Amino acid sequence: MTPATFAFDAANQERVKIWIAKFPTGRQQSAVLALLDLAQRQSGGWLPQAAMDHVAELLGMARIRVYEVATFYTMFNLKPVGRHLVQVCTTTPCWLQGSDAVLGACRAKLGIDVGETTVDGQFTLVEVECLGACVNAPVILVNDDYFEDLDADSTERLLDALGRGEGVKPGPQVARQTSAPITGANTLKGGADA
Amino acid sequence: MVNLTIDGQEIEVPSGITLLQACELAGKEIPRFCYHERLAVAGNCRMCLVEVEKSPKPVASCAWPIAEGMVVKTDSPMVKGARHGVMEFLLINHPLDCPICDQGGECDLQDQAMAYGKGMSRFEEYKRAVMEKDFGPLVKTYMTRCIHCTRCIRFLDDVAGVEELGATGRGEAMEIGTYVQRGLSSELSGNIIDLCPVGALTSKPYAFTSRPWELNRTESIDVLDAVGSSIRIDSRGAEVMRVLPRLNDDVNEEWLGDKSRFAVDGLKRQRLDVPMVRSDGRLQPCDWDVAFRAIADRVGGEQGAKIAGIAGDLADAESIHALRELLDALGSPHRDGRQDGAKLDPACRAGYLFNTGIAGIDRADACLLIGTNPRVEAPIINARLRGRWLAGGFKVGVVGAMPSPTFRVESLGAGPRTLTEIAEGRHPFAAALRDAKAPMLILGQGALVRSDGAAVLATARAIAEANGLVKEGWNGFNVLHTAAGRVGALDVGFVPGPGGRDTAGIIAGAERGEIKVLFLLGADEIDTSRLGACFVIYIGHHGDRGAHRADVILPAAAYTEKSATWVNTEGRVQRTVRAVFPPGQAREDWAILRALSAALGRALPFDSITALRSRMERVAPALARTGEIAPAPWGAFGTTGPMEDRPFASAVANYYMTDPVSRASATMARCTAELLPRPEATGIHG
């Protein structure tokens, strides 16, 4: 399962060049986060050791220095994850707004507990700290997309759609424009969009 | 200079130091875990908090710059409370397992918890536990005890130059480790045991063998490489339990190579502890008189020209000199202290010394390495070179192979051809040496043991003279030895006398039957299969190659068992101190030679080590002042001639096994098996 070697594909090699060029000569190590992110995306959402070693070699740094960075940030996954990495926020504002129900719906729907991956490799469920979208609490982050203003039903519908491979609309899952007041607009009411 | 007030005491300190250093100058004790004089400042343990007037919070003095007029308190209620708090935090996750911890009795955390702690904890939750790590055969880990001071990481990064340790994870999940499971590859890895302020990193070979208060401490000198590091021998009864480094800024600072630290278990194995005489093809134990009589029977009627002596790598200067006097008395000019055949020229002392001095490396700004790999030949010197390189403005060129260097080197070429180009000024690196203010070169034994070694030596001298390596107040010509006994042997003139044979000549003579009697003073690295029918007398402490070939074995004392003189590669005269007695019937080498001379009817004119030393110092005045380096004036040495176009190789193939002591050590055998790159396995490797 763990690949023995890693190399950036052609498109990523171009991105690597751009990232490295952003930093002054002798300071290429500053590109480590960006390169690890590219490597993680290319490897299917996680970082095999071979990928970290490759980044270390590209940037001329000791391997352990890359491992330190990769283990420090929780956004880097050091074990394989499912196609959809479901990250449920359970920090206070989301919790007050019903994140327990959201997390419970995920558990029930996917049949797995926090930190586990479904047998078909579609979903990995994790619990995370504040995602910084408290105004739309409760929220979950699936790969790069935020799904907001959830409850148990909308969470189940979302997971079903993801499981079927259908397109889903990120953002609020209720009738609400981004982070506008949930009770409807109370300013700029005469605008073109109103 | 900056004026400070520390605890009401006004003091003037040099500018640029930290507040912690200033407090120490004022005689105040500041507790600390992460701060270490020889490592980069980290500032993460917070134990060194002090109160600075006008600062609302206590400050970490180890990372705090001083300023004029600063008023500091190190004993105020705020400081006391801060220390209580920090100590309580440090102990939150530290197990209360001192009774089963090897650090117990010499633990910074234990001591400072007693002195600065509160004596109780309010922590009621579960303590964390951390998985053990595999750091190889030398360093034992118990990472639950780790307080994350990061000294081990900083040491390996900065001093040892192998970035293998790091802090992975964060917060409560932070761990010190290699992330991937494997041993540390550094030859200096044992020093992280000393640096660790708690029991997280302890010595694996020494684990659970003794407590510090049971040990006798003897301050001595290491002889397992030619650096002559200052060591402390900890012994219990007749047993050397461990060896630790001792502070010596001129030589080893406070570090010690792994071989010097961990090979001491070899002192308990393969020892020669009773005289032996070969009869019917087998070595039989006997008493001293029988052994001496067997020698007298063979040597008595022999002409001096058919007798020879070779001194080995661990031989001390006194016994080499005693053997020389014995050979002189027997009328033999055949003697050599260069068993590896190095073409070192005894004519000029500056021609075989590390003239710059180990501390002198700090002043150099360019360096040419010839046929040497200091990382395995002298890890302490390698650490100095790395330290100098880290400081910047240090250009290093290498002629020969230097695998996995710990500092940036420019590979100039493989062999003598490049050397000639530099000597003739045709190579760009010659200009780099000429332009440097304090250029140096280091010539390894690998370049000198070749048949063209004398020409290599002459070429190195030419490079030194042509490029300003030798000038008023600076001598940048350095020979890096690998054997502790070599410089001493050259100093007492243990080289062929008029008409005498060198090592190669002696062995060839023995093979052809021209040499009938051969004295081996701990000489094990010669080809003993080529000694023909020669009568071999082995004086030494280990049953190594020399003893296997011997006809008579006279058991002698190892370096921990005698007070003797060794001269390190710089020419520094140092004396060991006896920590334990030699095993069984073994005796000190000089006393054996003195007794043997009487049995041969040619009693040597000394009856004590003091009398022997004064006779030795008459031959070699440089050996008269212990701890010092006698000035060595520049002169002519080496013999110009053609050089073969063969690449230089280091004289040390396996750092962990270079001498009879380390070859007998089980710990060094484990290091060899686990840490060295393995040769390609073939079908016959099982």
Kindly describe this structure.
By secondary structure, chain A is α/β, with parallel strands linked by helices. Chain A folds into 2 domains: 10-72, Arc Repressor Mutant, subunit A (Orthogonal Bundle), CATH 1.10.10; 84-166, Glutaredoxin. Chain A has helices spanning 10-21, 32-42, 49-59, 63-72, 92-96, 99-110, 152-164, and strands at residues 84-89, 123-128, 140-142, 145-148, 171-172. In chain A, a hairpin with a 2-residue loop joins strand 3 (140-142) and strand 4 (145-148). The longest helix of chain A has 13 residues, at 152-164. Chain A is globular and about 55 Å long. In chain B, the strands form 8 sheets. A 7-stranded mixed sheet of chain B has the order 14-13-26-25-24-15-16, with helices on both faces. The longest helix of chain B has 16 residues, at 77-92. Chain B has 21 helices and 28 strands. By secondary structure, chain B is α/β, with parallel strands linked by helices. At the A-B interface, helix 4 of A face strand 7 of B.
Please name the defining characteristics of this protein.
heterodimer, A: 194 residues, alpha/beta, Arc Repressor Mutant, subunit A, Glutaredoxin, five-stranded mixed sheet, 11% strand, B: 686 residues, seven-stranded mixed sheet, 21 helices, 27% helix, globular
Topology at a glance:
The complex is a heterodimer of chains A (194) and B (686).
Chain A: H1 10-21, H2 32-42, H3 49-59, H4 63-72, E1 84-89, H5 92-96, H6 99-110, E2 123-128, E3 140-142, E4 145-148, H7 152-164, E5 171-172
Parallel strand pairs in A: 1-2, 4-5
Antiparallel strand pairs in A: 1-3, 3-4
Helix pairs in contact in A: 1-2, 2-3, 3-4, 6-7
Chain B: E1 2-6, E2 9-13, H1 19-25, E3 49-52, E4 59-60, E5 71-73, H2 77-92, H3 108-116, E6 139-141, H4 151-160, E7 166-168, E8 175-177, H5 191-195, E9 201-203, E10 216-221, E11 230-236, E12 239-245, H6 258-262, E13 276-279, E14 282-285, H7 288-299, E15 307-311, H8 317-330, E16 334-336, E17 366-370, H9 374-377, H10 379-390, E18 395-399, E19 410-413, H11 416-423, H12 428-435, E20 439-444, H13 445-448, H14 453-466, E21 470-471, E22 474-475, E23 477-480, H15 486-491, H16 503-512, E24 517-521, E25 535-540, H17 545-549, E26 552-555, E27 565-567, E28 573-575, H18 589-599, H19 609-619, H20 660-663, H21 666-675
Parallel strand pairs in B: 1-5, 15-16, 15-24, 17-18, 17-20, 18-19, 20-23, 24-25, 25-26
Antiparallel strand pairs in B: 1-2, 3-4, 3-5, 6-9, 7-8, 10-11, 11-12, 13-14, 13-26, 21-22, 27-28
Helix pairs in contact in B: 8-18, 8-19, 11-14
